[in-house]
Structure formats: structure tokens, C-alpha cells
Automatic annotation (TrEMBL), chain A:
Entry superkingdom: Eukaryota
Location in the cell: Cytoplasm, Cell cortex; Cytoplasm, Cytoskeleton, Microtubule organizing center, Centrosome; Cytoplasm, Cytoskeleton, Stress fiber; Cytoplasm, Myofibril
This protein's name: Dynactin subunit 4
Subunit structure: Subunit of dynactin, a multiprotein complex part of a tripartite complex with dynein and a adapter, such as BICDL1, BICD2 or HOOK3. The dynactin complex is built around ACTR1A/ACTB filament and consists of an actin-related filament composed of a shoulder domain, a pointed end and a barbed end. Its length is defined by its flexible shoulder domain. The soulder is composed of 2 DCTN1 subunits, 4 DCTN2 and 2 DCTN3. The 4 DCNT2 (via N-terminus) bind the ACTR1A filament and act as molecular rulers to determine the length. The pointed end is important for binding dynein-dynactin cargo adapters.
InterPro entries, sorted: DCTN4
Family: Belongs to the dynactin subunit 4 family.
TrEMBL record, chain B:
Annotated compartments: Chromosome, Centromere, Kinetochore; Cytoplasm, Cytoskeleton
Record's protein name: Dynactin subunit 6
GO cellular component terms, A-Z: dynactin complex; kinetochore
Function: Part of the dynactin complex that activates the molecular motor dynein for ultra-processive transport along microtubules.
Gene3D superfamilies tied to this protein: Hexapeptide repeat proteins
Family per similarity comment: Belongs to the dynactin subunits 5/6 family. Dynactin subunit 6 subfamily.
One GO MF term: dynein complex binding
SUPFAM superfamilies: Trimeric LpxA-like enzymes
Region feature (Disordered): 155-185
Chief location category: nucleus
Highest classification ranks of the organism: Eukaryota, Metazoa, Chordata, Craniata, Vertebrata
Organism of derivation: Gasterosteus aculeatus aculeatus (three-spined stickleback)
Amino acid sequence: MASLLQPDRVVYLVRGEKKIRAPLSQLYFCRYCSELRSLECVSHEVDSHYCPSCLENMPSAEAKLKKNRCANCFDCPCCMHTLSTRATNIPAPLPDDPTKTAMKKAYYLACGFCRWTSRDVGMADKSVASGGWQEPENPHTQRINKLIEYYQQLAHREKQDRDRKKMARRRQCMPLAFSEKYGLGTRLQRQRPGAPISSLSGLSLKEGEEQKDITIEPAPALDEVEPLPEDCYSRPISLPEVTTLRQRLLQPDFQPAGASQLHPRHKHLLMKRSLRCRKCEHNLSKPEFNPTSIKFKIQLVAVSYIPEVRIMSIPNLRNMKESQVLLTLTNPVENITHVTLAPCEDDDPDDINSTAKVVVPGKQLVLAGKDAAAEYDELAEPQDFQDDPDVVAFRKSNKIGFFIKVIPQKEEDADVTVSFKIRHDFRNLAAPVRPSEEGGAAAAPAPAESIWLTHHVELRLGPLAP
Amino acid sequence: MADKPNPQKSVKIAAGAVVCVESEIRGDVTIGPRTVVHPKARIIAEAGPIVIGEGNLIEEQALIINGYPENITPESEVEPKTMTIGMNNVFEVGCVSQALKIGDNNVIESKADVGRNVILTSGCIIGAFCQVNTCEVIPENTVIYGSGCMRRVQTERPQDHRSSSDRLHTRRVSPPGPEEVQRRA
């Protein structure tokens, strides 16, 4: 059954700041710490920005300037799909001879999904294919910019005061630029709620410039507000004319209420992120810089280091009766791995979800290494592992099928869950090579040491048979 | 087919229409000139005749069926209602149309499902995979799109599918990105 292969059937426990249970395909493995990591125990960093439709790369500084939007591509304001430029021919008088008309190209934007066109909001057709489309100007831009400048200056001043206090306390001669260098990005200065706005201070004026005092006028309070139109309650609403909340909030500057004022906006950029282990600061995942490439420069995903347990078949489970469940173990690495399974202890703090007792095979299971050329190599002798037929059901290249016995404990159980510990040896090829005792010009690399790793695995086997 | 008194079981195809022999046409169907019926299209007139106008385009695996409503068995006496389809409509691949009255210049996109009690006026576009089985008249120039069958009114008529001069000149200018679907030429 394909539903047995669903990723959330088998979850591994990650012991980080929070205990997270996630399928192995969503976990990372830090081979320097030799521990599983999930998305919540790594730090995410932005690698590069790119536009999802034209796949154009953009350096972060430029992206910040353009407010994280692409310069060429537009989004349909109605359905948020990407707009495409279409051309039609319109007769237009020739500049030389007004009496004759020639066919000139006119370009307009159209959405392929909801059939919105730029002519719907009254935007005139442009004569240039790209670059002619402008976003409407916000009437409040000037005021907002002034406010931002004022608060930037305020933040800068606050930071200077803070640094002066720190310097006075430490009584050391630290240059003022020291705190500037370690701005955002290191863990030391993560934003704490309630702290003064230090994010804006990074964009503030440089040290040498004189700081002009920017004053802002407070917003004037009006006594009289524009009254509502008289037919506000009696006029029938034409629903196609009213914008939906989503359409409205995607344009927070204008928030138009009528569909005839929905102008297209530039497309949002997406970003590629890299992940870093919080304990040892090594990169766990680093994508390629090129937006068209989906490969990774560094890809330390858990499925390529940890043996994966999968459910193969479940018999009818009955309350308090022992049944045999067939599981498979796959070895992702190229050397032979030895795996031992152990049931959870009675007072195990990790064992909170299991609703059934499990009897795991006590013997050590041996998994063959993953051999990429195995299917082409006809002369390879099958390795003889002498499997116990009660324990091992089948063996196929780097995978074995084995039985566990499950005794459901709860009556009327909608989802029988079992958990056990899996202990396997891991050869750490990334560990630094220890120099040999004699030294010597060409020291032979010491064989990588194997360490034993233990993981807590939980399986969801589904409901009891009726 | 059950024996009914005076059945007109003929299929009348006007001159200038292109009807592929692999299509399945059953019952009393009239097809107007310049209409194109692609192979594997099915036009089935069970509970009454179907009259198809000029210039329509019925693509592969489209199903136009004038069938019995679900709660009425074929044995009981039901007056046969004629299904009328106007001019220049497009029935894209895999759509199902049971609407009794369809006007002009409509587009029923792929895998859309139009129920029996819907009346399409003109210039309507029923988006791909949208199921419209309400009991209403769809106003002119309505576009139904999206998984929630959102609606909006468009100000432009859909492009005339037959006009070749338009097709040559109305083409995509920006290079199609990886997620854009090729529009059929």
C-alpha cells in the first residue's frame, strides 16, 4: 500500500533545544557534532535573491533598494499569477505622412489565469515591450521617507549613547567602530523585544558625516472627517466591482476598494537560504548561487547518513494479540553498517506516544554497503550474511526486511504507535585526520573511527482491525 | 437506443464544417458551418436534439451531452428539450457541457464541468477544472477561475480563436518563464 510509505509514518526524534519528531527526509545531520538536526535547531541565512519567473539573480543590496521586488516581472493584482506581455497591432498614423496609417505594435499586460488585462484598469498600451510599465506613486511617500530618516537618526544616537556607556564601564580604549562591525548577523546581537531599534542604525550615516537634526511635524488631528456618501446604505453592491480582502491587502499602500483601481505590482523576489548548525557553526545546507540550478554545494541531509526505517506491510492488528510487522532498513552509506535495535525502557522520557508493546530482534543486523554499480556488475558475488530467517525476511543490495512483533495495548486504538531505539555505527569521514606518531612526509591517513549513534524511532501503524 | 415515436436520429452537418470521423455523435445533432469537431469528441443527444451553431471549436475528449436529469428515469414522459449552442464557442480538451443554452464567444476550458441548469450568455470563460452546477444565468463577460470558482467581469472579449491574423500578431513578447504554460497558438 502506498500509504505505508507516507513520510510521517516513521519519525525520528531530534534532541535539540526542543524535542522534535520529524521524518528522516526532513532532517539534517551535522557530521561534526554527529547529531540529527531539524529545521528548528539550525540558523537560517539568506544566500541570494532571485525572481521566480525570470530567474534573475540580484545582490542583496540591490534587492533591499528595490524593496525585494523584480524590476521586469509583474503580478496580476487579481489572482497573483505572473503577467505576460502581449502585443497587438493597432493602426497608427505615420509620423511622416499623417494621412497614411501603418500598423504599429502596442503592448499590454495580460494574465493567463484569470484573463485580467492592463486595459481593465485603464492603463494605456505601451509601445515598448518591457520597461514601460510604472507602478503608481504613493502620495504619502515623502512623509514616510521623512519619518524613516528621523527614526534612523534617533536609533543611531541611541546606539552611540549605549556604546559610550559601555566604553565608560569597561574603561578600555575600544574604537567606536568595533560595535559597528559586529552588527546584525552574529548571535551576539539578535534582536530582543523591547530593545531599542538597532536594525535601522546599520543603515545610518557614517561616522564622519555631520548629523543634521531632522525634525518632523506631528500628524495634524482633524476635527471634521469626510462624511459617507448618502447612498451608502441604499446603493446595491455589485460584487465583481469590490476587491477581496486578499487583493486589497497585497497592496498595503493603496488598499483599493474597487476593482478598477487594482494596479499590477512588481513580483516579489524569492531567496535561497543556507542552514548552519547552531552548536558548531558548520554549514549543513548551502545551495548553488545560480537560480536555475537546484543542486547544493553542501548537502548534509540525514537520509544520506542514517539508516532509514520504513514500514513494508502490516497485518491485522488486534488488541492484546501479538502480530508481526515487516519493516525495511536501508543503508545509505557505502560501507557495511551494523544495526542493533532495542526496545524503549519503561521509564524512558522520550517514549510518550507509544500505545503498543514491541519486541524487536535482539541480534545485530548487518547491512551491506550501497553500491552504485551493483546493477551493472554481473560478476559480483552476493555476500553471504547468514541471516536468521525468523528475523530477516529478505535482503536486497543495501536493504533488508525484518520482523518486529507488536502487541497493541489499548482497546479502540485509532493509531497504534510503537517506538524503539536504533543503534548503528557511523564512520565519520569528515573528522580531521590525526597525524601519525612518527610524522613523516607522507603520513598515511588514519582509518576513520566508527562511533555508535543511537536514535529514537516512532512508527505509526494505523488503526486496529475491526 | 429506445424506440420513440418519430425519432429524428439523423446527424445534419452543414457545408464547411470539419467533423473528424473518430468523434462520436449520437442522436439528433445539427452542426453549423465552419465548426470543427476534433477526434474523440463526443456529442450525445439523448434526451433531446442538439443544435450547434457556426464557428465552434470542439476539441478532443470534450463531451457535449443532452442527457436526462438525474432524478428522472428514461421511461417516464419527459418533453425533449433542445440544447442550443451559439457561435464561436470553444470547448477545450476534456470539458463536459450539459448546459441547455450557450450563447456566443464563450470558452469552456479544459476539464471544466458545466451543469444542466446553467445558461451561458456571451463572452463567458469557464476556467479549467471549474465545476459550475448552479442554477443561474451567467452574466456576460464573466470569467470563472480558480479552485474556489472566483468570478470577475472582464472588459475584453476573449480572443477569436479562428482569426488567424490576430493569432500572428497577438503573441507573447516576454520570454516564457519555467512556470508559464504554453498558450495554444
